Amino acid sequence: MLVQQHAVKQQAHRPLSMATTTSSTFAFSKLNFPLIFTNNISSSSTSPFHTKTRLPPITSKPNRIISVSSCLIDSSSVEAVKSISPKVKVETCVWNWKGYSIRYQYAGKSGPALVLVHGFGANSDHWRKNVPVLAESHRVFSIDLIGYGYSDKPNARELGDTPFYTFETWGSQLNDFCTDIVQDKAFFICNSIGGLVGLQAAVTDPSICKGIVLLNISLRMLHITKQPWFGRPLIRSFQNLLRNTPVGKLFFQTVASREAVRNILCQCYHDTSQVTEELVDTILLPGLEPGAADVFLEFICYSEGPLPEELLPLVKCPVLVVWGDKDPWEPIELGRAYGNFDPVEDFVTLPNVGHCPQDEAPHLVNPLVESFAARHATTKN
Question: Which domain of life does this protein belong to (predicted)?
Answer without folding.
Answer: Eukaryota
